[in-house]
Amino acid sequence: MTGAQYTLRLRQRLPALLPLLALLLLPLALTQSVSQNCTNLSAPLYERERCVRESILCPGATSAPFYDKHVSPTVEYMQPVNVSMLLQVWQINELSVQDSQMELAAWTTFEWIDERLAFNETESGVVATTAFASLDPEHSEIWVPPVYLLNRKSAESGLQASATKDAVIFPNGKVSWRNQHNLGLLCVFEGLKAIPFDKLTGHLMFGTWTRPDFVVNLTFAPRGAPGREGLVFGFDDELEPNMFREYSIKMDECETYTDTIFDKNLGITYPILMYQIVVTRSKNFYLVKIVVPNIILTYLSFGIFLLDVRCGERLGYGITLLLAMFAVDITASALLPISDAWLWINVLIGVSTCFAVMALVESILVLWLYYKYKTDEDAVSPFIDIAKPARMVFNAADNAFDNPSAPPQEEEFHDAHEVHSKEAAARRKRTARQQYLHERNLEERYVAMGMRLDFFALILFLLFYSVFVLVMFLTASSWD
Ligand SMILES: *[C@@H]1O[C@H](CO)[C@@H](O)[C@H](O)[C@H]1NC(C)=O
Ligand SMILES: *[C@@H]1O[C@H](CO)[C@@H](O)[C@H](O)[C@H]1NC(C)=O
Ligand SMILES: *[C@@H]1O[C@H](CO)[C@@H](O)[C@H](O)[C@H]1NC(C)=O
Ligand SMILES: *[C@@H]1O[C@H](CO)[C@@H](O)[C@H](O)[C@H]1NC(C)=O
Ligand SMILES: *[C@@H]1O[C@H](CO)[C@@H](O)[C@H](O)[C@H]1NC(C)=O
């Protein structure tokens, strides 16, 4: 093929190549008009902002270098990009002591500087623009710090699921990214033992997952009261405690501090931000529903000592009260965590039940003593009224004594015999009366003994239980 032939063929094919050529030149032409609109202050703002967004985010359309959202905007190792974090807590949605979990309605705000996103404000007249940001790089338009809630409850309750808002980009490359979350966390609650006087302490741990501390420096935003920088309640600590919720946040006892996790395998340290949230319980509910009923029932169970042994109510009364206490205990169990720890309320309920059981045992002892005397006297089963035969003998004798004029049953007895039988009747009557009196004495003695025992028990139980309750309430706040 000669040179002329080649030129000819090229000329023939030129019309076919033209669209291709145009396609190649188009980006160049676009760049030209884009940069025109970027710097042309009389162009509409939306055109200028679109142009700015294109110039910082969209590769290919401008001469700006390709923006890789996987790469952090760190300029030098050991000069990490400073990422500040602000946590705004709105309320406690849920707190489960049984499951050691808590859910907070909160906002997070991350701020950092990404030089690659800087644009010229004076040239474009654009004050700020936005870009979609997400912890999922697939969907994010820009790099975001890979910060996660490390002690999240489930995938839905961490930062990632709800970090789906636009970030604001300022001309100097500063990015501000705010999100709303329902943060579900796994907590190791401290101070639980003093239920219901407890102050529960839970921690939120935010840390970077992939970027070590020499690439990303995680810090607290300079907001919030001293000692808890980076944590505010509501917009500006103005959150009103909700009267009708079981748990409320103790703002002035919350703290924040930084920490690190050292990965031994990689020899890398990851920064961590710790938020300590202190929560108090509305204790009146527990006092009214569990503690006070339990104490009242225990005091009532001491009433068993005031009931006469001979009155059959004694055991029934004691056992009914014990059952009522168990009912209160069942109510309490539903609200308390199951653990090996000695909870204040469990100790109170347990010891109160012990007192009630001991009162019952004392009562059984007194009853046993009372019936034992009868068994001893007549060696009959204590379940039969053994006083009856003696009483019958006495009654018979009494009748004989009261009716001396009653006609003798056998007329043919002579006087000596009559006198003799009269004397014998009087004797029988005397011994029967003595026996009866003796038994009455014994019974009264046993009853008196039982009453004395009851009286001492009442004093002792009242004293010891009152001291116990007093000590429990005095030590409630320092229970641990
Ligand atoms: C620049 O702005 C003008 C005026 O709004 C518009 O007609 C033109 O299409 C814009 N340039 C580009 C590349 O969009
Ligand atoms: C600037 O924009 C205005 C309005 O779109 C347009 O009339 C003007 O020609 C543009 N100037 C340049 C230099 O592109
Ligand atoms: C991060 O903050 C520290 C302290 O404020 C500062 O010395 C350092 O220069 C900052 N790093 C960057 C990359 O701006
Ligand atoms: C922004 O553009 C103006 C005008 O072109 C220029 O004078 C200025 O130095 C630029 N600023 C920056 C930060 O690049
Ligand atoms: C990280 O930021 C904090 C606060 O801005 C600063 O005091 C500290 O020096 C920074 N650490 C590094 C390694 O830059």
Question: What distinguishing features does this structure have?
Answer:
480 residues, Acetylcholine Binding Protein, Chain: A, Methane Monooxygenase Hydroxylase, Chain G, domain 1, seven-stranded mixed sheet, 8 helices, 43% helix
CATH topology of the largest domain: Acetylcholine Binding Protein, Chain: A
Q: How many β strands by DSSP?
A: 12
Strand fraction equals: 15-25%
User: Could you describe the largest sheet, including whether it forms a barrel?
Assistant: 7 strands, mixed
CATH class of the largest domain: Mainly Beta
Q: How do the helices and strands follow one another from N- to C-terminus? A: HHEEHEEEEEEEEEEHHHHH
At the fourth level of CATH, the homologous superfamily of the largest domain is Neurotransmitter-gated ion-channel ligand-binding domain
CATH architecture of the largest domain: Distorted Sandwich
On the 0 to 100 scale, the average pLDDT is 82
Indicate the overall shape.
rod-shaped
By secondary-structure content and strand pairing, the structural class works out as alpha+beta
C-alpha Rg (nearest Å): 46 Å
End-to-end CA span: 99 Å
Low-confidence stretches: 26-34, 379-394
Helical amount: 40-55%
Please, what is the oligomeric state? single chain
Transmembrane segments: 286-307, 319-338, 344-371, 455-476
Subcellular location: Membrane
Signal peptide: 1-31
InterPro entries: Neur_chan_lig-bd, Neur_chan_lig-bd_sf, Neur_channel, Neuro-gated_channel_TM_sf, Neuro_actylchol_rec
